[in-house]
Amino acid sequence: MLVTLTIIRYPKKYISIAIFAMAVHHIPLWLNKKISFYKLLGCGKNGTFDKNPDWQQWGILTVRSNIDAINKNELHFSLFGSFIKRWLNFFNTETWTIFLEPIEGHGKWDGKEPFGQHPKQNNYNGPVAVLTRASIRLSKLTAFWSNVGKVAVQMDGAKGFITSVGIGELPFIKQATFSIWQNKEDMKAFAYQMREHQEVIKKTKKENWYSEDMFTRFIPLQTFGTIKGCNPLEGIL
User: Fold this and answer.
1) Distance in angstroms (rounded) separating the CA atoms of residues 56 and 67
2) What is the CATH number of the domain that holds 53?
3) What is the pLDDT of residues 169-209, one digit of tens each?
4) How many CB atoms are located within 10 Å of the residue 59 CB?
5) d(CA 95, CA 29)
6) Mean pLDDT across the stretch 91-95?
7) Which of 21, 144, 158, 216 lies 20 to 30 Å from 184 when distance is taken between CA atoms?
8) How far is it, in rounded angstroms, from Cα 197 to Cα 212?
């Protein structure tokens, strides 16, 4: 199984085109028989759960079983087909794509297990990517947003942190954070030893904030392109 996340950044003058793409691109992705699961995603400004959207930046997540089907020299064509490839080129987008292998996790996304079933722990401890996503109950939105901010601001300075992006299907309600760490131990130290993060985890369970949630860890395999002029994993993979 191959999971890909492509972060797309449009020039500022094409923000309306970027928003329109969130509707139009469903069709070619849905028709693509090589893709078993996909999500078109908006992005937050601050690299994690975020109420403030970055209107220039968007994402496409895909899952497919055939790794050999990817042509690195025609990356966007291989991933998304000719229509989206031409769209991204025509509107002069900057893109960064990461290839991922799921290794650990639990939970569901829209009632599905798109990355398959995996153990909650294994022995891998190289560079690790983490996807944490949730559908927030409407009655719990105030509690959620009043608590996550103080955790988010501390991620950037955490030991072993490389980069992160806030992504989501619906503003305020369906949110996710995709983060990359030097190793699993550093990631776990942030997730389970930081007091503020521990308090939020306890509240999510005690107060039943989520109608659905998912936590998945991946091995980052390869990256292509740049976002805001750099490849966050250059020199690491």
Assistant:
1) 30
2) 3.30.70.100
3) 887 788 889 999 999 999 988 887 777 777 877 888 888 99
4) 21
5) 17
6) 97
7) 144
8) 19
Q: With cut-offs at 50, 70 and 90, classify the pLDDT of residue 128.
A: very high
CB 76 within 8 A of CB 85: yes
Handedness of CA 234, 118, 71, 109 (dihedral sign): negative
Where does the pLDDT of residue 131 fall: very low under 50, low under 70, confident under 90, or very high at 90 and above? very high
State the chain's maximal CA–CA distance in angstroms: 49
CB neighbour class for 139 (10 Å; exposed up to 12, middle 13-18, buried from 19):
exposed
Residue 107 contacts residue 211 (beta carbons within 8 Å): no
Structurally, the chain folds into a number of domains equal to 1
130 Cβ partners below 8 Å, 6+ apart? 177, 178, 179, 180, 181, 187, 215, 216, 217, 218
Residue 147 lies in a domain: yes
Model pLDDT, residue 27 = 97
Closest CA to 44 of 204, 137, 129, 152: 152
Structural domain contains residue 237? no
Beta bridge partners of 224: 97
Q: Which amino acid is at 48?
A: T
Three-class SS state of 230: strand
Tokens describing residue 136: 């927030």
Q: Does the residue 26 lie in any domain?
A: yes
Asked whether residue 202 is domain-assigned, the answer is yes
